[in-house]
Amino acid sequence: MLKSKLAVVLLFLPLGVALPSLAQSDSPGQSSANPSPSATHVLKGSVRYHQRVALPDDAAVHVILQEISADGTAKSLAEQDIPTKGHQMPIKFAVKYDSAAIDPSHRYEVVAKITSGGRLMFTSTSTYPVLTQGAPADNLAIDLEQVSAQYGQLPSGQAAHTPLIDTQWNLAEVDGKAPQNDSPQAYIKLVGKTDRVEGSGGCNRLMGSYSVEGRELHFKEMGSTMMACMGDVATMERAFLAALNITESYRIRGSTLSLLGKGAKVLARLEAQDTAAASQQ
Fold this sequence. Notes:
Layout lengths: L1 H11 L27 E9 L11 E9 L5 E10 L7 E8 L8 E10 L2 E5 L16 E4 L1 E2 L21 E7 L12 E5 L4 E5 L4 E9 L2 E9 L6 H15 L3 E5 L2 E5 L5 E7 L2 H5 L2
Parallel strand pairs: 1-7
Antiparallel strand pairs: 1-4, 2-3, 2-5, 5-6, 6-8, 9-10, 9-16, 10-11, 11-12, 12-13, 14-15, 15-16
Pfam families: META (PF03724), YscW (PF09619)
Organism: Silvibacterium bohemicum
InterPro entries: DUF306_Meta_HslJ, HslJ-like_sf, Lipoprotein_YbaY-like, Pilotin
């Protein structure tokens, strides 16, 4: 009966007149369209430092996700403040950001610091790219550097870092392993005038070239002499050369140089040769 009445109504309606919907919304005032999925993503990681310094109870970790413009200007996209409340290193973070604001062609970095009583205690000094251009999007490990023992500026006359160029860097560890105490010293030196690399693998003489742009560091055409090497010396030398060949960036903390590979993985650590000792060689 309902169908026949509806048919009669349709027959007498003028062309072009639309009927109101016969279906009623289950929830008046709400759209029946599905809401767009959330664009909120989370960048997770941790911050740490290597000094044996306990954080005071009021210390706070500040983590900032930044967009880096073509001229190097940093713009904050998301931040997280983490009261430590007596917890010590490492401190985990989870920065929420809008994924719709991320442009795959742009560069993004994370910086972090620790403050106490309004004073800066520790800060990141290396570049930590994230999210785009092959950079990690999770499980980021950020190393912090102590500003000074008294949470102030570096003491006057004290250099913040040893220069990368024209410093003899002695190998301290590669792939997490330190050379044996009686092993000949492996080292590299990046010569500023020639853009060449000089050094030793502990057995053979090393040579090659390098390029530096910002925090990026690449070793090129690395080679060595062909002396026969045995045991741990040979193993460390091969590992050292392999690390040099896949180095993509670096960081310097005081007198320690870290060679970094893909995803800022530490490949090797080297210590600056003491100036007085170097002059005696």
